[in-house]
Specification:
5-stranded parallel sheet, Rossmann fold, single chain, 7-stranded parallel sheet
């Protein structure tokens, strides 16, 4: 099949696809180049950094399958996909585990002042008494969006000894029961925001969630609380967050892995604040997760070609710089 890989995926998966398919790799191409490259492609593989708009897909009349190597679909025109019968496959599970772990790492880094401690010691300042932090145990962890990733974060928080509150839109009885088993107490979004010592965001970016954490929401947060955004940059009004952090009436610190603008050379308006941790959308960037995503891409291709159901997802631990060979026959052309 004719495949366009529009975002970076594991080199092993690319090599495997190239054995049996016509593969073009153009990572994070500009829209003009993307429109040119998709003209004869049947399969498009992408991550969050590439916008797959109706304008782009209209240039790909033979497009049959989009593989979203991750979870969110805010970068894809879903209405165009539905209207034109294009199959869309997401791969949320591998990245979810990595995002959840980074979320917890950022919580700890904020609560224990890890970044300023590192910076000060490198400058020769042994500031032990100046760097008193806070325990997470016994605190309230609020999860806005207790879905695939949020539930994992909540489960980790409960194991750490935190009280976990969560909200999810329209939960079924089965979802509510599953979250309860993970010791996540469902309540409404306003309660989660106002009661959390650590507020962690894991919602998709939609018209409803855009700027949901605005000046009003920030004013309702607990004094001395922390905000973690692992969702999408558009979920948080960054200017309002900057002002709230400067004023210091509610939010003590924030960590953001996602940003309103994500491109080379851009500097976040939050970058000058000492009580903020910024990371460049690396939530799913682990060797293990990217390897697993690559394996899943190959399974999706097999399933699409052979019309066989996808196998259940599995987790295969990966040692650094060591990758297993993919079992089974090569993909059909």
């Amino acid at each position: 099949m004719r495949i366009l890989i529009a975002s970076s995926i594991s080199p092993e998966a690319i090599a495997e696809l190239q054995k049996s398919h016509d593969v073009i790799c153009a990572f994070n191409a500009a829209i003009g180049q993307l429109k040119s490259l998709v003209h004869d492609r049947e399969v498009l593989i992408c991550r969050s950094g590439v916008t797959i708009s109706a304008e782009v897909m209209a240039c790909a009349p033979q497009l049959k399958l989009i593989i979203r190597a991750g979870s969110g679909t805010d970068n894809i025109d879903l209405e165009y996909v539905r209207r034109n019968g294009i199959q869309l496959e997401r791969i949320p599970e591998p990245g979810a585990k990595a995002v959840a772990e980074l979320t917890f790492a950022l919580m700890l880094a904020l609560a224990r002042n890890l970044l300023p401690a590192d910076r000060m010691l490198r400058q020769g300042h042994f500031a032990k008494t100046e760097l008193s932090g806070y325990l997470l145990r016994g605190k309230v962890l609020g999860i806005v969006g207790a879905g695939n990733i949020g539930a994992l974060v909540g489960e980790m928080g409960a194991a750490w000894g935190m009280t976990v509150l969560g909200c999810v839109e329209g939960p079924s009885p089965a979802v509510a029961a599953a979250l309860q088993k993970k010791r996540i107490l469902l309540t409404d979004c306003c309660d989660v925001i106002s009661q959390a010592d650590v507020l962690s965001l894991h919602v998709p970016l939609t018209a409803k969630t855009r700027n949901m954490i605005d000046a009003g929401a920030l004013a309702r947060m607990k004094p001395g609380s922390y905000l973690i955004n692992m969702a999408r940059g558009g979920v948080v009004d960054e200017q309002a967050l900057s002002q709230a952090l400067i004023e210091g009436k509610t939010v003590r610190g924030a960590a953001l892995d996602v940003h309103q603008v994500e491109k080379q050379g851009h500097v976040s308006p939050l970058a000058s604040l000492p009580n903020v941790i910024l990371t460049p959308h690396i939530g799913a960037q682990t060797v293990d997760s990217q390897h697993e995503i690559g394996e899943r891409i190959l399974e999706i291709m097999d399933s699409f070609i052979t019309h066989q159901p996808l196998p259940k997802t599995k987790t295969v631990p990966v040692r650094p710089q060591v990758y297993s060979k993919r079992p089974g026959a090569a993909l059909a052309a």
